Amino acid sequence: MHTPDRPHGPHSTSGPGITPGRVPHRNTGTARELLARDGAVILTGHENTPDALVVAAAQVIGDRLRELYPQRVRTSHPGNTVHLHADSFDIVVDIGGVPHRRRHPDEDHVLVQCARPAPEGGDSFALDAYAFVDGLATTDPALHAFLISTDVDLYGAWADLRGLPATPRIGRHVEFTRTGRRVVRRTDGAVPIHRDPDSEHIRVQLARLTEAVHDIEPSLPRFRLDEGDILVLDNYRCWHGRDGHTGERTVRILTARSSDAG
């Protein structure tokens, strides 16, 4: 079902949940405004092609665009729920003796184009992670303190995956870049640092974070991406996911870094 364009959609309808505004792709100024305000926007009217993702990245990021990473195509048939997450990975590969970065831990934008909508289900949801974490300061101070103060190995759970660096990537779930941007991470790859004396406490807090994320998902507003629609997210601020679905669903994913990143 097609959702009518609404250039100035509501920022939030359920706590930290986000309903991105839908903007015709030629309205670059409005798209940038909503992305800055809400952390997410949907561009409509692009051709359903891989090239459209590159064009969209240039439109919304403009002259701050620094790096694009190889596109990924994801097809699920059928698909289980994809829980809230922020795109983040660290992969460098060797091609002909030359190292090439295929993913970056500090990707600050992610673009998702719906190439084939699911016949039933597969609706998307997004959360303002800034608001979510700020709320924990009152509702769950212990978890909030963990997110802002504890170092973890961000990709340690995926250590056997080829292409990941041998050196652990250490960071906190909430950090600030040298340009002053706040980063709120959400990855299933996080584990305690090797031989960290607080490993058991860290595992407990990681499990509590997962539980809190899963608990809030049912309350978030849903939105559907039609064929060709491109969801653009501030990857430092917003987490995103989708419901399970029947039939086949295909998306193209492009991550990018701007001059504001890392």
UniProtKB/TrEMBL annotation:
This is TauD/TfdA family dioxygenase. Gene3D superfamilies: Clavaminate synthase-like. InterPro entries: TauD-like_sf (IPR042098), TauD/TfdA-like (IPR003819). GO terms for molecular function: dioxygenase activity. It comes from Streptomyces lusitanus. Residues 29-251 form the TauD/TfdA-like domain. Keywords: Dioxygenase, Iron, Oxidoreductase. Residues 1-26 are annotated as: Disordered. It holds the Pfam family TauD.
